Amino acid sequence: MNSEIAKSTSRSFPYRIVIEQRLKEPSRTYSLLISVLAIVVALFIGGFVIAQAGGDPIRSYRHIAKASFGNIGVFSDTLVKATPLILVGLACAVAFRSRLWNIGAEGQFFVGAFGASAIVLTPILPPDTSPWIFIPVMMVAGILMGAFWGLIPGFLKAKYNVNEIISTLMMNYIAVAWNNFFIYAVWSESGFQMSPMFTKNAWLPRLTDYSKVVPAFRGLTTHLGLLFGILAAVLIWFILYRSRWGYEIRLIGDNPQAARYAGLNITRNTILVMMLSGGLAGLAGMSEITGVVHRLQGAISPGYGFTGIIVAWLSKLNPFAVILVSILFGALILAGREIQPSGIPKMIQGVILVCLIASDFFLRYQIRIVRRE
Amino acid sequence: MDPIIILQAGVASGTVLLFATIGEIFAERSGVLNLGVEGMMLLGAMSAFSITVKTGNPWLGLLVAMLAGGLISQIHAFISIHLQADQVVSGLALGFLATGISLVLGEGLSKAGTVSLMPSFSIPVLSQIPIVGPIFFTRHSVLTYFGYLLIPAAWYYINHTRPGMNLRAIGEFPAAADTLGINIYRLRYFYVFLGGVMAGLAGATISLAIAPGWFSEMTTAGQGWIAVGLVIFAQWDPIRAAFGSYTFGALRRLILDIQGPTTILGLRNPFYYNPYWGFFLQMLPYAFTIIVLVIGSREAIRKRLGAPAALGTPYIRGERGL
């Protein structure tokens, strides 16, 4: 689409609009501005649909803002919702960076939660084990289960060129059925569709647990998982931008052809990236189950794995931006629980993603108004 | 556990996958990958059911569902054809959006009760044929019979007509097609629209014929994604797509029925005595999709067949094409 096919607004008008490809990367401020504008447009469209469905858009948005950032208590709850999003968003970001479309973070989240639960409920460790042993073992179990769930589609992709989008999605449904089997049949607490409560030693510490020392922490539910998320972001940043492996990941993502000619082992990288991605999502599941839910049950995720895709895309796959974007989406999920109709948060997420992708056009092309000769 | 009944019901429920898969084949043959099938199906199922509840006319519901699927697919068409965005992400976004809209507009619809459904009937002479008659021509919805007509029609269109040849050309080598004066942009919009219409039809087939009602996201339960997988298994061929769809339909039905009887072939039925094993049965369609993908992908490598060459890449006029 270069200037030859530019559209003229009218024959006699002395100016015309030219759309041409950008030759250099737009500045950071400009691309941030475009993203913000895309979100604003998305909120307008979302508001329009809410009004069509019989709701009051302004009241809905005001409610979302107040119920998620209104005071330190609700902000702490927002951080709780943001915690799994950070980890899942990183999982998606690292896979997308290598051009692997891991849409299976939801399933990896579920089996991560299963892995952590198995340590407590099987029981692999006795209930009076010290938290200093419990928590690391559960983390490893969650990460390993998630990594295993990523390994299967990664292996199939690397060996048989099986489309990972579909295989990771199918693994989601399998993960849910797998968890349900254990929730209903094996660990069911007196016939209810949930496992017994975990022993306190297996809970991630929350801020409120330290309210004796710091009274201001009373009632704050933010838990250690948030720290996992932040540390994971640092680690992923380091891997991607400061390590040889990260260079390989980015090279394969940017130009797989060149990577192959350079002799990179694409098979190995595909499998490893899928395992890393799955492990992060598995850790998210472990953090959610030990930090918030404290038992294995069916409803542990309002679609974190899918929101992670949007988070990763909105952060332009930057690990630190993932943290900020996760907080915004955590707010949307937290406040969205009380909004009627209940599908609104999901719909707004969809509108935001659509607007974001559409807005990328403005990063690749520039639109100028020039004078006719 | 009568095999004839399972196969009969399998053909019925396979019709859903058939419509969605053939629709996606058209879109992908034109070079546009649309991952929003699941969302468009949900939108179709919701609008078909909702309109039928309000008007009592399932045909109107069907029409609106097809239009809704077609219209929302144009968002993806615009973003991927004119804005040249990544088709994977754009398709996912469309899926999120369509799912969200369906959930918002479908609020409370699950309590709507029963509605009049698409008519079903037996075909007079054909239903008398042994085995084939009871499976394919007895007490099926009119949509299932429409599916039978669609399979050869789609195959003939793609392989033996001029517009079908253009369709293959814009998916394989758009730059060459462009030099012949084929309007690539317009055709791609059209085939994405067709894919959306078919996905809407697939959704309406669920909510008005196969499993009537609205059950939020469980209405489709991942069948849109299975359809995207089946396209690869089918090697972008409608006849193989039909084979895959009906097989999957029968598998879904078998899983429901196998937990019923106390004995199977004279043996104790473990799924009857251990109802929780049903969760492993529930995994089967999804595990089977992965297996089918492995088969399809290996075959593609062996026969050097594969996706339309331009699948997933935007066509930019004046740039060096494929």
Q: Can you describe what's shown?
A:
The complex is a heterodimer of chains A (373) and B (322). Helices cover 66% and strands 4% of the residues of chain A. Chain A is mainly alpha-helical and 373 residues long. In chain A, α5 runs antiparallel to α6 and α7 (225-242) crosses α8. Mean pLDDT of chain A is 89; it is low at 1-9. Chain B has one domain (3-119, 127-303): Orthogonal Bundle (ABC transporter involved in vitamin B12 uptake, BtuC), CATH 1.10.3470. Chain B has a two-stranded antiparallel sheet. Classes of the chains: A mainly alpha (373), B mainly alpha (322).
Keywords:
heterodimer; A: 373 residues; mainly alpha; two-stranded antiparallel ribbon; 2 strands; globular; disordered N terminus; B: 322 residues; ABC transporter involved in vitamin B12 uptake, BtuC; two-stranded antiparallel sheet; 68% helix
Main β-sheet, spatial strand arrangement of chain A:
1-2
Radius of gyration of chain B: 20 Å
The whole-angstrom Rg of chain A is: 23 Å
The succession of helices and strands of chain A, N to C, reads: EHHHHHHHHHHHHHHE
| Low-confidence segments of chain B | none
Which blocks of ≥5 consecutive residues of chain A have pLDDT under 50? 1-9
Total count of helical runs of at least 4 residues of chain B? 13
Structural class designation of chain A:
mainly alpha
CATH class of chain B: Mainly Alpha
- Give the beta-strand count of chain A: 2
The oligomeric state is heterodimer
Report the helical percentage of chain B. Answer: 55-70%
